[in-house]
Amino acid sequence: MINEQIKLTGELQIVLRDSNGNIKEQKTVPNLVVTTGKVVIASRLTGNTTGVMTHMALGTSTISPVAADTTLGTEIVNSRVALTVPGGGATANVVTFSSIFGPGVGTGALTEAGIFNDSLAGSMLCRTVFSVVNKDVGDTLTINWAVTIS
Fold this sequence. Notes:
Blueprint: E1 8-17, E2 23-30, E3 32-33, H1 35-45, E4 55-59, E5 81-82, E6 89-91, E7 94-101, E8 108-116, E9 124-135, E10 140-149
Antiparallel strand pairs: 1-2, 1-10, 3-9, 4-5, 4-8, 6-7, 7-10, 8-9
């Protein structure tokens, strides 16, 4: 009997730098690929190009992610930024998404992040919560997010 299952896992690397480029904080946290994200992945296998992931967003909710999530708990207004490579970059079975939140973007006590296929709404691929990262107005936050298909 063949019993094969595809599993999606991920983690993100968060790097916060001050206005001089010095690292203030760095952490790695796991994520949850949500149900809408799995639907987008399935539709992409059929050639649908409308589900291409294009943006990352930040928020302040500490509510744990669940598979039914479609949005961040409390997304920060105007915190959604374009991915440095729309759709991410793939190496073997890992897709990597990266975004840079420059000075004045996504400022505050950050505790969650998500990946979306739209600049304002759209489908969410994955969501995570993490211990607070305090981003000051002059800071730059870089997130590199890897989703592994195994």
